[in-house]
Write a structure and sequence with these properties.
Length: 173
C-alpha cells in the first residue's frame, strides 16, 4: 500500500500520542494483584465511556466522509486518484477502530473483578492490557483525525483557493 507523506505525518502523531499515554502508564510502576483489581474497578466506567465515545466518533466520521466525497466529486477542479485512495485509507482505518471499540466496549462490560475464578496475580496483567487497549484505540483515533485534517486542508487548497499546482489536483489540458 502506498502511504503518502500526509498519512506518515498522521501516523507519527498517533505514535507520539501513544508514547505520551504509555509514559503515563509506565509512571504507575508495578502493581500488586489487589491494587490492580481496585484500579480496574475504578477505571472500568472510564474505559466504557472512552470506547463508547470512540464508537460514536468513528461512526460520525464515516457518515461525514460521505459529505466529503460529495464535495470532492461535485467540484470544477478535478482531483487525482491519490485523493480518493487517501479517503479510502481513512475509511478503512476508521471502520477498524469502530469495530474494535465496539468489541472492547462489550469486553470491558464483563464483570472481571467479581469473578472468583481469576487468580489475584492476573489482575495486574488484565489492568495493563486494558490500559494498552485504550491507549491504542485513542492513538488510532488521533491518526484518523490527523488524516482527515490533511484531507480537508488539501481540499481547501485545491477547491477553495484554486491551487492548480497542488500535487493532488489534476492538470487541466
Amino acid at each position: 500500500m502506498n502511504i503518502s507523506k500526509y498519512t506518515k505525518r498522521a501516523i507519527l502523531g498517533g505514535i507520539l500520542s501513544l508514547g505520551i499515554i504509555g509514559l503515563g502508564t509506565f509512571m504507575l510502576g508495578n502493581l500488586s494483584g489487589y491494587e490492580a483489581k481496585e484500579l480496574i474497578k475504578s477505571s472500568l466506567t472510564g474505559l466504557n465511556t472512552l470506547c463508547n465515545t470512540i464508537v460514536l466518533a468513528s461512526a460520525t466520521i464515516l457518515a461525514l466522509m460521505l459529505t466529503l466525497l460529495g464535495v470532492s466529486s461535485g467540484t470544477k477542479s478535478t482531483l487525482k486518484d491519490d485523493h480518493y485512495m487517501h479517503i479510502m485509507q481513512i475509511a478503512k482505518l476508521d471502520t477498524v477502530i469502530f469495530i474494535a471499540s465496539l468489541l472492547f466496549f462489550l469486553i470491558f462490560n464483563l464483570p472481571v473483578t467479581e469473578s472468583d475464578n481469576i487468580p489475584p496475580n492476573w489482575f495486574a496483567i488484565i489492568y495493563y492490557v486494558t490500559l494498552g487497549i485504550s491507549t491504542i484505540l485513542s492513538s488510532a483515533l488521533v491518526v484518523v483525525v490527523l488524516m482527515l485534517y490533511n484531507t480537508i486542508i488539501n481540499i481547501i487548497k485545491i477547491i477553495g483557493l484554486g491551487q492548480e499546482d497542488h500535487p493532488l489536483a489534476k492538470v487541466k489540458e
